[in-house]
From TrEMBL, chain A:
Residues of the signal peptide: 1-25
Alphabetical list of NCBIfam families matching this protein: octaheme_Shew (TIGR04315)
Originating organism: Sulfurimicrobium lacus
Top-rank taxon: Bacteria
SUPFAM superfamilies: Multiheme cytochromes
Protein name: Cytochrome c
PANTHER family attached to this UniProt entry: CYTOCHROME C-TYPE PROTEIN NRFB (PTHR35038:SF5), DISSIMILATORY SULFITE REDUCTASE SIRA (PTHR35038)
Coiled coil, from the record: none
Automatic annotation (TrEMBL), chain B:
Protein name (record): Cytochrome b561
Transmembrane segments: 20-40, 46-68, 116-137, 157-177
One cellular component (GO) term of this entry: plasma membrane
Main location group: membrane
Membrane topology: Multi-pass membrane protein
Location relative to the cell: Cell membrane
Length: 552, 199
């Protein structure tokens, strides 16, 4: 009997030893160190171009161009596929189809939470269209000479497109904004054409930093501070360091720019991209360079987070990390409110940012904003023109997809922008309004909502009941720019905090140690039993002491 | 007159005290990770807890080897002999200075209740903590192991915490019962010097 027990126990012990030794030999999971794709020496702006062509020597460009399309025609003599390529991009079509749902999004189709919609306002809005002449719905998207090459390829910094010109650059010196006393010079198209190059941060930023009509207003993680960023603001774009351009991450092929707000790669897994390896995933993701296990062995615990948390959650601790800030809300219902003298007025906040304008309503700005965190799987369903809304609830301009149990979802930092927009009280749709322009129906000219909505709805082909109200709206942007240096990333306790619940306190469906997610029954029972045991042994001990005194 | 016998060998004493230190330290850091209080800071508590866990695993490898080669594992074979006598002693006899019903020898160094308690720690609390702790430690590999569909961190944490509470209860009772030897300090002295005073 004893022998049998001994054999069984020996086997058990030997098994346990083997297991323990195996564990010691391999103490931690494999952590391929994919973090460091050696950064190339930054190309300084003034450095001689690496191009094999000097455009200033081409006779095709040595002429006094009168218009943008004339320049494009010259470009297309050599780059004869370029316009066709551009015409397949969102920069040209302002349309993006959701590959999963088939929904047509893009600026042309959605209503956003800022300027709402370009429909009927094309002359103004198309200052940011990579084309010339889109002034109304009659625009012909097949005309190649209307592609604007220069807005992305100008290296002189002198190419300007202003609202009102339907995407044409400034041909004649003019005062802008009207009545401001500031003048914008006519663009020297020959000079610009002879000095073209690869897009820089300034090119992309000329539109993307100033979305919604003010610096930093729209995205929160994009503003003109990224033109000359320091390391604190963006570890990759740091002008004195890695000095990335936008296209370093948004790598582009056939003019098709990778990475999109509409189709976000929310849950990238697997190792980093390798040269020559066929890889169709989005190169504009953190993982495309860093892989999915980027932290070194001694911080391997952090790698365990990557199947639940986007890199951005820890590495972008705040957005709008500059004094420019970003807009947190836009209340259109305040538009057309006049000053005491009955005249339109503007007001700025204490930091000099627009706070009120009789044309556009009221804004609230903020800098160094702590994001709101949500599950996100990369799919957003947008409100497109004509979609029905429920005015009793806050209208979600985009419904962010994702859930805790979905393997393609991660916890993302988001910029939630709140607003108030006009809607049709009978047809229950968000309205289109004609805002820009000098005509009688333009809101910014006549301050008449009824006329502006009537004109906007007509231009968009939507029915309008004639009754409008204002509804609360909300738009959610995932945050991905302004990546902080590692020293500024979130620390453990900023999320694993039982006192406050931490940064992720509103993120449900996940158990996080140290957040107070504990089983309350177990905690109460455990501590109660521990206390009882303690009291029990103390009483026992006291009894012994008492008895020995009595005896003594 | 009392006599002294050599009960705990040098490795045994080393193992006991280093294990005791590690377990107490892991209780302190573990309950901080659990969110019960703030002491080292969450990240630091996780690191210290993890380092302690690996150290304890190393210690156990040696201890298992030692018990196996010396045959000392037999000390944990349970017996019901004198269990009733021990319970009577702790509940009555100890108050009236009745003689201790168990006399430790080098071959039987634990009283029957100790044997049962330690076996319980070895076969129940230990494996509960080790298994759940192992899952906790390798959270990032669940999908590689193919267990992520069946295991949730919530339940791993539940069992790990339950094990920790049991270990805490054991610790409290154990520390107190070290004073319940032939004299209040005889057990403690034995675990320090190796020599136990017996009647």
């Amino acid at each position: 009997m004893l022998t049998r027990t001994r054999i069984t126990l020996s086997a058990l012990v030997a098994g346990a030893m083997l297991a323990a030794l195996t564990a010691l030999a391999e103490p931690a999971p494999a952590k391929p160190n994919t973090a460091t794709a050696a950064p190339q020496a930054p190309t300084v702006a003034k450095q001689k171009s690496a191009s094999t062509a000097d455009h200033s020597k081409f006779k095709e460009l040595d002429k006094d161009f009168k218009t943008g399309p004339e320049v494009t025609e010259a470009c297309l003599i050599c780059h004869n596929e370029a316009a066709k390529q551009v015409q397949h991009t969102k920069h040209w079509t302002w349309e993006s189809v959701d590959p999963k749902t088939g929904q047509k999004r893009g600026k042309k189709n959605i209503i956003n939470n800022y300027c709402t919609s370009p429909i009927s306002n094309e002359k103004d809005c198309m200052a940011c269209h990579a084309g010339y002449g889109w002034k109304d719905s009659s625009f012909d998207f097949t005309v190649e000479k209307n592609v604007d090459c220069l807005v992305c390829h100008d290296t002189t910094g002198t190419y300007r497109k202003l609202p009102g010109d339907a995407g044409h650059p400034v041909y004649v010196r003019r005062e802008f904004p009207p009545g401001s006393g500031k003048f914008v010079e006519a663009v020297d198209l020959k000079k610009v054409a002879q000095n073209i190059g690869k897009p820089s941060r300034t090119n992309c930023g000329s539109c993307h930093f100033f979305g919604a009509g003010a610096n930093g207003a729209k995205h929160g993680d994009l503003s003109s501070s990224l033109q000359h960023p320091d390391k604190y603001l963006d570890v990759h774009m740091d002008e004195k360091g890695l000095n990335f351009s936008c296209a370093t991450c948004h790598s582009t092929s056939s003019h098709q720019v990778s990475g999109s707000r509409y189709n976000v790669a929310a849950a990238v897994t697997g190792p980093a991209h390798i040269r020559g390896k066929v890889d169709t995933s989005n190169p504009a993701s953190c993982q495309s360079c860093h892989g999915n296990k980027p932290h070194p062995a001694k911080m391997s615990r952090l790698n365990d987070h990557t199947n639940k948390i986007a890199c951005q959650t820890c590495h972008i601790p705040e957005y709008a990390r500059d004094n420019i800030g970003t807009e947190r809300s836009w209340d259109w219902s305040q538009a057309t409110v006049m000053g005491p003298d009955g005249k339109p007025f503007v007001r700025k906040d204490s930091a000099g940012r627009r706070a009120f304008d009789s044309k556009k309503g009221a804004w609230v700005w903020e800098s160094y904003v702590i994001p709101e965190y949500r599950w996100f799987n990369g799919v957003s369903k947008f409100k497109v023109i004509g979609d029905k809304i429920d005015p009793s609830k806050t209208v979600q301009i985009n419904e962010v997809g994702g859930s805790p149990n979905d393997p393609d979802s991660r916890i993302w930092p988001t910029n939630v922008h709140r607003g108030k927009q006009p809607y049709d009280k009978v047809n229950l749709t968000l309205t289109l309004q004609h805002t820009g322009g000098e005509d009688d129906t333009a809101l910014w000219h006549n301050y008449d909502w009824q006329k502006a909505i009537t004109a906007g709805m007509k231009a968009g082909g939507l029915p309008y009941s004639g009754q409008y109200g204002f509804v609360d709206t909300e738009q959610t942007w995932p945050i991905t720019h302004m990546v902080a240096p590692k020293g500024d990333a979130l620390t453990c306790v900023q999320c694993h905090d039982s006192k406050t619940g931490g940064r992720l306190k509103n993120v449900k469906g996940i158990y996080m140690p140290g957040r107070g997610d504990n089983n309350q029954l177990l905690d109460k029972a455990g501590w109660a039993l521990a206390l009882l045991t303690l009291l029990g042994v103390l009483a026992h001990g006291a009894g012994r002491i008492y008895m020995s005194y009595r005896k003594g | 007159m009392s006599e002294k016998i050599y009960v705990f060998k040098r490795f045994e004493r080393f193992w006991h005290w280093s294990q005791a230190t590690l377990i107490i330290f892991m209780l302190i850091t573990g309950f901080e990770v659990h969110g019960s209080y703030h002491l080292f800071g969450f990240g630091q508590a996780v690191n210290l807890h993890t380092i302690s866990a690996w150290t304890l695993i190393g210690l156990w490898v040696f201890a298992i080897f030692w018990h196996f080669t010396t045959g000392e594992w037999k000390q944990y074979i349970p017996t019901l002999d004198k269990v009733i006598a021990m319970i009577k002693f702790y509940s009555v006899g100890i108050f009236i200075h009745a003689p201790h019903p168990f006399k430790a020898t080098q071959l039987k160094k634990h009283n029957p209740l100790q044997r049962l308690a330690y076996l319980g720690v070895l076969l129940f609390i230990g494996p509960l903590l080790w298994t759940s702790g192992w899952f906790y430690l390798f959270f990032g590999d669940w999908s590689v192991w193919g267990v992520d569909k069946y295991v949730s961190l919530e339940w791993v944490a539940f069992f790990h915490t339950a094990g920790a509470f049991m270990m805490l209860l054991f610790l409290i009772a154990h520390v107190y019962l070290t004073t319940a030897g032939h004299t209040p300090t005889s057990h403690i002295k034995a675990m320090i010097t190796g020599w136990e005073e017996v009647d």
